[in-house]
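testing teh design pipeline on a random one, pls ignore if ur not involved
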């Protein structure tokens, strides 16, 4: 019984020690499935994906609205600058915050 169990364990680890040999024999390409799919978009110059930047922009707008409702003006300035930076990275028209005292 123990001998049979050892043989099964050895069979399980058959390719672990010869991984390079196995990939060459089977033609397995480890990079084929890398970054393929709808959730990955173009990479921006900031080294983030476009969809990640859109998500950050939406979160910044949410934070801006919450800070405006609470009257936290230091956070308003922070979110406004982040929004302008992210819009610039995405190539959108940059929102004007001059009525909030920002340039």
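output:
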């Amino acid at each position: 019984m123990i001998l049979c169990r050892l043989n099964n364990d050895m069979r399980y680890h058959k390719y672990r020690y010869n991984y390079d040999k196995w990939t060459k024999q089977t033609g397995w390409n480890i990079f084929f499935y890398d970054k393929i799919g709808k959730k990955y978009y173009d990479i921006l110059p900031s080294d983030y994906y476009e969809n990640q930047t859109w998500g950050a922009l939406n979160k910044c707008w949410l934070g801006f609205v919450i800070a405006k409702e609470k009257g936290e003006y230091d956070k308003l300035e922070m979110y406004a600058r982040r929004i302008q930076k992210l819009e610039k990275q995405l190539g959108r028209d940059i929102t004007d915050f001059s009525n909030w005292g920002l340039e």
